[in-house]
Amino acid sequence: MRTALLVVALLGAAAAAASAATPVPVATAPTRVNVEALQPKSLLPKRPLHTEFVVEVNKFGQVTRVHSGKASNDVPFNTHTYGNALQMFIRTEDGHAISGLYRVTYDYNPQTARVRRNVTLVRAGGVDPNAIGAANAMMAIARKYATHAQQPGNGVSPAPVATINPKRLPDLPQVMKTPSP
What we know:
Elements (H helix, E strand, L loop, with lengths): L1 H20 L13 H4 L10 E9 L5 E8 L4 H12 L13 E10 L4 E11 L9 H17 L21 H6 L4
Antiparallel strand pairs: 1-2, 1-3, 3-4
């Protein structure tokens, strides 16, 4: 009985000491991180860049394909703007979509390190209003090849396939008696 009381008293004292050592949490405002200050300015282009694409838009406002384009001298900028143009939705301010051809321009300003995008209607109509959006078409292709690669015999197998039936392997003493090649 004495040992039980002694154990309870020691556990109580240890718990009190542990709770007294724990500091009281203080609510502080989260620190704001200036992302623009963290970006390495040396990697940004030093001169103004301009790309221009003429895109076809369906009845939902999705870009279905790039009709034509004018590239800048900076390949990464061209790649980013082309990808952005393919994923765009172009709609009016009230949310309606007008199918047709649009001119999308991207202008990079090295002083502000920002890209400005402008969209203007070239002509309404003249395109397939029921065409599938380019982003949706690319996702459908990716899903097709992802399921194709998961089927047996296609793509990369996760592990080497056994050429010998493991149930018919020879006994270890028999293997040890055979000469090595």
